[in-house]
UniProtKB/TrEMBL annotation:
It comes from Marinitenerispora sediminis. The keyword Cell membrane does not apply. Keywords: Hydrolase, Metal-binding, Nucleotide metabolism, Zinc. The keyword Zinc applies. The record marks 232 as: Important for catalytic activity. Binds 1 zinc ion per subunit. One of its GO terms (biological process) is hypoxanthine salvage. Catalyzes the hydrolytic deamination of adenosine and 2-deoxyadenosine. This is Adenosine deaminase. Zn(2+) binds at residues 19, 21, 208, 299.
Amino acid sequence: MSHQLTLDQIRRAPKVLLHDHLDGGLRPATVVELADAAGYTRLPTRDPAELGAWFEAAADSGSLERYLETFSHTVGVMQTREALTRVAAECAEDLAADGVVYAEVRFAPEQHLEAGLLLEEVIEAVLEGFRVGQERAAAHGRSIRVGTLLTAMRHAARSQEIAELAVRYRDVGVVGFDIAGAEAGHPPTRHLDAFEYLRRENAHFTIHAGEAFGLPSIWEALQWCGADRLGHGVRIVDDIEVSDGKARLGRLAAYVRDKRVPLEMCPSSNIQTGAAASIEEHPIGLLRDLRFRVTVNTDNRLQSGTTLSAEFAKLAEAFGYGWDDLEWFSVNAMKSAFLPFDERLALINGQIKPGFARLKWATE
Ligand SMILES: O=c1[nH]cnc2c1ncn2[C@H]1C[C@H](O)[C@@H](CO)O1
Ligand SMILES: [Zn+2]
C-alpha cells in the first residue's frame, strides 16, 4: 500500500487551498503581456521562462522583506480592471487544472490604485475574474469554487476601510479578511480596530503570523485580535519541546491544538523566506504527527514555482505521506474554510471523500 504517490496522481485528488495570493500566482507569460500593454518597463526580462526563473531566484532570499520586493512587478502590472479580471480568471483556471476544488485567494485592494481605480472597482474586477475562471473551468469539466479574502497591508493604515469592504462584499464572493506584509515591527495589534469591527460583524479573518516573527506574533493574533486562522503559524513549534520522542506543549501551543486553530502552512515559501530550513525539517511533520489542525498551501505559486499538488508531492516524498494523509489535510482545510458549515460539509461529503475513495480504490 505504501507506494510513493506521484505528482500526476496527486493532481487528480480533490484538494483545498486556503492560502494563495492573487498577486503571487500570475503566469510569467501573463506578466510579460500585461507589462507590454501597460508600458511597464521595469521587468528584469521579457522572456517568460527567464522571468519565471527570476521570480523564484529573487524570492529565494532567506528574508521575508526581500521575498516581498518581488511583488512590485506583479502588483505593477495589475493596475487596470482588464488586468485584474484576467489574472483572477487565469488563477481560477490554473487552480482547477491542478485539481483544486475549493480555494480562498487573497489580495490587497489598496495596492491596485496606481492608475486611478477605486477600491470597489478593484474588488469587482477580481470577483468578475473569478466568476469567468470558474465558468471556463466548468466548461472543461473541472469544478472549482473560489472565495476571495481581502488583505490589508500591515505596514499601512487602511485596514479598517478594507475590513468594511470585506463585510460589504461578503454576499457576493468575499469570504474573509487578512493582513499581510513584513511581520517584524508591524504587530497585528496595530489593526485592532479592524479586527474588533469584523468580530462585531460576525465576519471571518486570518492573520499572517508566526512566519518571520515568533510566538508573540501568534499570541497577539489569537488572543488580542481573535484570528480564526493563522497564516503560516510555523513558529508555534518554538513552544513545543521534544525529548526522548515525547513532545511537551507550552500553553500557547496547547491552546492552538486544543482550539483546533487552523494553520495555513506553506512549505516552499517558508524555505525561501528562511522560516524553515528544508522540507524534511519543516515543522509540518511534527505538527501533523501531533494532530494540530494543519493545512497545506501554496502562498505564492509564481515566486515558489509551485502548485498545491507539487507541495503535496514534496511532503509525500519527505514524510512518506499517502492518500490517507492527503485526505486528512484536505478535510482539515475544508473544515477550516470561511464558507457556511452546510456548504463545507457538502464539499467534504460530495467531492473530497468520494474523490479520495476513487483514487484509493484505483491505486490499491
Ligand atoms: O508569506 C507572506 N507573508 C507576508 N506577506 C505576504 C506573503 N506572501 C505575500 N505577501 C504579501 C505580498 C502581496 O503583495 C500581499 C497581498 O497579496 O501580501
Ligand atoms: Zn501569504
